[in-house]
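Customer escalation, tier 2.

The customer says the design service returned an amino acid string that "doesn't look like it belongs to this structure." They asked us to rerun it and document both sides in this ticket. The original structure tokens are below, unchanged.
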């Protein structure tokens, strides 16, 4: 037993040192002491709890590169949540993501470090709103963005993410699709399909603040650079961008193409995380912070694993209906 404990301790130490190397240049050495203590404690707690940490691309680098086992966009996290054999899932993101993990893993413990980590887009629509849209457009299939509550997912035919929205829409029967709740993503998809898209009026408070004037200003200041944007941005921004895609697609684009200079129009921490993976690319910062994502930090991740809070629960009847929508999404390739 002592030998095993020493081996496991050595493994934790190796992971801690690897995290420090990944974060070099992002977290100053003067700040590493407290950060390193939290990372070390979280690594040990994960092992003790048989826990896995899923972190969204908008999480800060100390989480993304320091303690996360799986990182990605909403689609990637949903896929991995469905596959994990861990007993405990710690979701470092916002509440709808933790709900989705619980929907796919009803027998597992799903924790979110801060229950107040919400989403303006998810808050823009209710289950009653979906039922009203169905009543107004009888027989039209409903696709809902994964950035929604479990109750909303339960009213839908299928879920989607920004990464697979076009494929999901094309998979549905008929000439029209009700697409909820992000208006800008709906407009983006409408320009790439022959189907008639019936949209809602929801927006992401992070992405709706970007403007085409922001792009023009940065291009004037920095000269030639590539601009890539998330499809939750307004139409004038997407029209002015060089590439539009989900957070995973944006990251892959930068890592594959390795352009000299890039402006990422999305949440701030993603630029930091991409910079750590592509240090030869200059990331121009003109980002907006998500106040909800920033409610998650190393301290409350550590506390979450120490106290096993906050456990996310979904009503079984709602979860069963929502699971069908999510699983149909995961079948789309």
């Amino acid at each position: 037993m002592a030998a095993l404990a020493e081996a496991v301790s050595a493994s934790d130490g190796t992971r801690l040192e690897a995290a420090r190397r990944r974060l070099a240049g992002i977290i100053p050495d003067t700040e590493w002491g407290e950060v390193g203590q939290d990372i070390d404690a979280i690594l040990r707690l994960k092992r003790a709890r048989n826990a896995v940490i899923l972190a969204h691309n908008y999480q800060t680098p100390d989480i993304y590169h320091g303690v996360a086992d799986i990182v990605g966009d909403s689609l990637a996290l949903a896929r991995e949540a469905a596959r994990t054999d861990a007993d405990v899932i710690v979701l470092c993101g916002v509440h709808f993501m933790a709900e989705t993990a619980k929907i796919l893993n009803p027998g597992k413990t799903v924790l979110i470090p801060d229950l107040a980590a919400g989403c303006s887009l998810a808050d823009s629509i209710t289950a009653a709103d979906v039922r009203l849209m169905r009543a107004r457009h009888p027989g039209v299939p409903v696709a809902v963005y994964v950035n929604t509550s479990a109750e909303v997912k339960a009213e839908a035919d299928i879920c989607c993410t920004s990464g697979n929205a076009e494929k999901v829409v094309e998979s549905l029967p008929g000439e029209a699709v009700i697409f909820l709740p992000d208006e800008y993503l709906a407009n983006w998809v409408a320009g790439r399909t022959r189907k008639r898209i019936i949209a809602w009026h929801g927006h992401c408070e992070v992405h709706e603040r970007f403007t085409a004037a922001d792009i023009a200003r940065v291009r004037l200041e920095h000269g030639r650079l590539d601009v890539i944007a998330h499809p939750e941005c307004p139409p004038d921004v997407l029209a002015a961008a060089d590439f539009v895609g989900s957070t995973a697609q944006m990251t892959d684009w930068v890592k594959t193409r390795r352009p000299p200079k890039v402006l990422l129009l999305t949440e701030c921490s993603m630029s930091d995380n991409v910079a750590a993976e592509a240090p030869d690319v200059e990331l121009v910062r003109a980002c907006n912070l998500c106040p909800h994502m920033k409610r998650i930090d190393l301290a409350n991740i550590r506390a979450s694993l120490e106290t096993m809070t906050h456990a996310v629960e979904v009503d079984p009847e709602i979860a069963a209906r929502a699971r069908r929508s999510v699983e149909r999404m995961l079948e789309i390739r």
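Tier 2 assessment: The sequence is consistent with the input. Residues 122-202 form a domain with the Rossmann fold fold (CATH 3.40.50.10800). DSSP finds 15 helices and twelve strands in the chain. Sent an explanation to the customer and offered a walkthrough call.
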